[in-house]
Request: fold
Amino acid sequence: VVNEEELGIYQSRLDYIDRIVESMKNLIQVEELSARNEIEEIINERLAKYSRKDYYSEISEDFSFELKKQDGTPVAKSKGERALLNISFISALIQLAKSRCDSSHDYFVQGTVAPFVIDAPFGELDNKYRGAVAEFLPESTEQLIVLLSSSHWGKVVEDGLRDSTGKEYILVSESQIDPSAGKTLDEIVIGGIAHQCSRYGLPETKTVVELI
Reply:
């Protein structure tokens, strides 16, 4: 049997735990709001600079985002605008994490400098948006790894990435197929130099990563 004095002790402990939980919830809400505002600011700076239309993005509490006219009316996103927003959002997260590397907090971990690995970021973009993404991606992270197909690599992308490029690699398909079978040789032109992306008549079938 628990007496009233013991019940009072247990209740005071429960009240204390409830206050801690409520305090933590408030801290998280403040941090989330700050993060959303910073990410929103980065995205809208890019929209103001690169988008053809006078739109802005608004991020909700669950970190989903929508495109709006200046009067607040939601608008449907084109494929290019959707891709631009998605890439801007991810790169903004990386920038946010980097900006908080030196922050100290009793409850939250510090930020970090994260690499950005992205596959085919230019696929659904026209040349204007390709140029925009090629310009701001290198500014978003300390290390950027971009995986591209030959159809995505062109002058606009190359001009945007060239000054920030450290090393370039190509994937070469090696095959046991007889070279006399008439297979077309694939190539990609980078910096005015043609590189073969397929080879035939080799001992085994594999893909080779080559530094160029």
Summary: The radius of gyration is 26 Å. The beta strands are 55-59, 65-69, 74-75, 116-119, 144-147, 169-174, 187-190, 193-196, 198-199, 206-211.
